[in-house]
Amino acid sequence: MNKKIATAISFIVINTIFVYANDIGNFSGTIRLGYQYDNISLDGVDEFALKGMLHYETMPFDNLFFGATVETIQGNGKSDKIDCFLVPFFDNDNKNYTILSELYLKGTFEKNEITLGRQTIDTPFADSDDIGMMPNRFEAAMLVNKDFPNTILTAGNINSMAGVDANRHNKFTKINDNDGVYFLGINYDGIDNLALQGWYYYGNDFAKIGFLEAVYSSKSDVIDYSAGVQYANQNYDNNSNNIYGAMIAINNEKMGLGVTMGYNKTNGIEATNFLAGGPFFTSIEHTTITNAGDNGKTYKAGIKWRADAIGIDGLELCVEHLWIDRSELTNARNLGFIIKYAYSDAVSLRAFYNVIKDKQEDDCNNIRIFMDYKF
């Protein structure tokens, strides 16, 4: 009897808290079902995972917001298969986990926004990179300033991270001991059809990275087109590189058809994506210029078709190919097929199939399928 009374009281308390919290803020969330198959080992293996994500952010109190996100990933991950998958679904032991992935205080003051704590960040060399079950999250302090016309200034310090690209997927771990990484960026679009950005990352006795990019976009009655160039310099322990890139993309809106071509080249040590993601024009699902080694090159070609051109809304098909030209080791290539379908704003499906031919790091096929429901 006492257990029944305690259960009833607990239910009432939780329900009251939820109702009150909903009155002073907003809940949102995602349920994701994921499947992955990989034959990077001798025998092909697969796994299923289910993610539940619940996010809460308060209404503003004197321009201050409080936010939190809890994520749990459950499935059939097995510890003896930890090295069998290109994209980690579970923790570092391939086991289920639950994590408080966001916990932040955000303030908005005129044209400034300051966020402190665990949060989602998207910059060229530190981004969410949502390719698995949980994206990257960062424990950081970040300022976004929009005081100047057509200009966004971003600055901050990243102290630790967790997620798909982190050293530990299920636990926030320090970056560069207690020093972290400082970053400063500027985005400018005050010139017609031209988007410019520049970034600098500094970690004391760890890394110095600069990045510049310019993309020109325009359209005619028949096509939309864009062309871009990029440059990065990466310095680790006095070993450095210069990375160059170029791209062109052409799209016919009426036909729903688009073609993309990209090129990257490294002079010096092997390129890296640094903390997460990577901004390079030749990045595809599993490979990019970072797989080309010292003084490497990559070439990318892709074709995309949107089915809304024939009245099927939300369906997108893509084929992309990356050629990896290594200066010393054997070359490699990655052929990828992508299907995306948005049934509604709440329900979507993504499927990826990649064939990687790489005698240096082993051939493999990878299939990943995700179904998301957002509320």
Brief characterization of the structure:
The protein is mainly beta and 375 residues long. It contains 1 helix and 19 strands.
What key attributes describe this structure?
Porin; 18-stranded antiparallel barrel; 375 residues; 2 domains; globular
Polypeptide structure, described:
This protein has 375 residues and is mainly beta. It has two domains: 1-205, Beta Barrel (Porin), CATH 2.40.160; 220-375, Porin (Beta Barrel). It has one helix spanning 2-23; strands spanning 25-38, 45-58, 64-75, 97-109, 112-119, 137-145, 151-162, 173-174, 181-191, 194-203, 207-219, 224-236, 239-252, 257-268, 297-306, 315-325, 332-342, 347-358, 364-374. The protein has an 18-stranded antiparallel barrel. β12 and β13 (239-252) form a beta hairpin. It is globular and about 55 Å long. The protein starts with a helix and ends with a strand. The model has no long low-confidence stretch (mean pLDDT 92).
Mean pLDDT across the residues is: 92
**How many H/I helices?**
1
Low-confidence stretches: none
Task: Count structural domains.
Answer: 2
